[in-house]
Structures are given as C-alpha cells and as structure tokens.
Specification:
It is a single chain. This protein folds into three domains: 35 residues; 126 residues, Umud Fragment, subunit A; 69 residues. 50% of the residues lie in helices and 20% in strands. It is built from five helices and eight strands, in the order H-E-E-E-H-E-E-E-H-E-E-H-H. An eight-stranded antiparallel β-sheet has the order 1-2-3-8-4-5-6-7. Strand 1 and strand 2 form a beta hairpin.
Length: 236
C-alpha cells in the first residue's frame, strides 16, 4: 500500500472515530434529558438547557423570533428569581392549565403576580390590549409558579422528529438500537485488534523460539565437530 493511501485511511479512521464518539455523546445527552422528565410538566433538559417540539401553529408570525409548527424550540429553565425579571416580548414555556400541557407563547403583559401570554398568530388577528376590552381575544394568564423556561432559539423542521424520538417506540428504535449496534461494532473492532496483536505476539515469540532452536542446534553441531577433531588429534 502506498504512503498516500495509508495516510488517507488513517485520516478516514480518525474522522470515523470522531463521528462515532460525537454520536455517542449526543445519544447519551438525549437519553439523560429524557430520563430527567419525571412528569408531563417537566422539560427534557441537560444542566438547565432543554428543547421542545412545536406541535401547533400558534407562534407563526412576522416577528424575528416567531417559529412555525414542526420547529424545535430551545429553552433555558428559569429559577424563581429569574422569573421575576421577565419582560414583555419574552417567549416563555409554561404549564397551560387550559390545555393541561406545556405551551410556549409570548409575554404581552406583566404584573407582580402573573403574566399574560399570547401566540403570535392570535396577536396578528386580535392583539391583547393592556387595560382594554379583551373580550373574545385569545390569551393566557400564567402565574409565576407555572412558568418553566424562556426561549433561547429554535430550529425549523426537526420538532416532529424529536417528538417521535421521545415516544417509547421512537426512543427504542432511534436511540437505544443505534447505541447497542455502535457498541457492538466497537466491540468487534476491539476484539479483532486484540486478536491481531495477539497473533503478532505469537508469531514474534515463535520466530524467537525458532531462532533460539537454530542457535542451539548450531552450538550442538559445533560441539560435536570439536569432539570429532579432538578424537582425531588424539589418534594421531
């Protein structure tokens, strides 16, 4: 094998190892985040950073931070002190008592005991008016103890996939199974490497033993020749 081909193979091997361990870390973090969800009120998170699939179109709008159905929203879990620093315009995730589920909407009004939230889609049609007549306007009043997190970013189009991954079937097929297969493959590679190393050691030992036997045989023949020469000298 030429030196250039050998270098290419080494580079590909290193890249493959990096991708493998990156995937393992990602799957591990995803598993930890899912294990941290103890009830439907909790958000899957690692060290206070989590994500939520968007299953409705209520936040579709023209704002720079609006997002569509099917997106994946990244959030930061909030402490009680941080909740008091929320402002109008922040997008929060909260436990919606009407939906009996987590919901993510924009804050449109703040009071010392609660905030008012509204989806961007509803706001475009009928915005919430502070102190006005909001009859028929779609909005949610959220107490601070029901606020969970604040939006930090989003990615479009991957929320549905993540939502399926969080189901038992999706988690088993796309998380547990790949980890098992990857670990099995690494076990195969490790076993193959150990066998190759062991074979090299056996062959090296065999070569040494063979060399020692040859040297011993040479020494035996040399001694026999010396003995023969001594006998011949003594018979003269």
């Amino acid at each position: 094998m030429s030196q250039s081909k050998s270098n290419i193979l080494n580079v590909l091997k290193k890249v493959g190892n990096i991708l493998f361990y990156t995937l393992i870390v990602f799957l591990l973090l995803f598993s930890i985040s899912n294990l941290s969800v103890r009830s439907n009120k909790d958000i899957a998170n690692v060290l206070g950073r989590g994500f939520l699939p968007v299953i409705s179109d209520s936040m579709e709008g023209n704002n720079s931070d609006s997002f569509n159905k099917g997106s994946l929203v990244f959030v930061k879990l909030l402490s009680d002190e941080e909740k008091l620093d929320l402002e109008i315009g922040d997008i929060i995730t909260f436990w919606d008592l009407n939906l009996v589920a987590l919901n993510t909407h924009r804050i449109v009004y703040v009071t010392p005991s609660y905030v008012v939230t509204q989806g961007d889609k509803a706001a475009a049609i009928s915005p919430y008016v502070i102190g006005g007549d909001n009859t028929g306007v779609q909005y949610e009043i959220v107490t601070y103890n029901n606020i969970k997190a604040i939006r930090t970013g989003d990615i479009g189009g991957v929320g549905s996939a993540v939502s399926y991954l969080q189901t038992p079937t999706g988690f088993a097929i796309f998380v547990i199974a790949p980890v098992v297969l990857l670990l099995a493959y690494q076990g195969y590679v490790l076993t193959k490497t150990l066998l190759a190393v062991n074979k090299e050691k056996i062959e090296a030992k065999h070569a040494v033993d063979k060399e020692q036997l040859l040297e011993a045989e040479k020494e035996r023949i040399r001694k026999e020749l010396l003995e023969e020469l001594k006998k011949e000298e003594s018979n003269k």
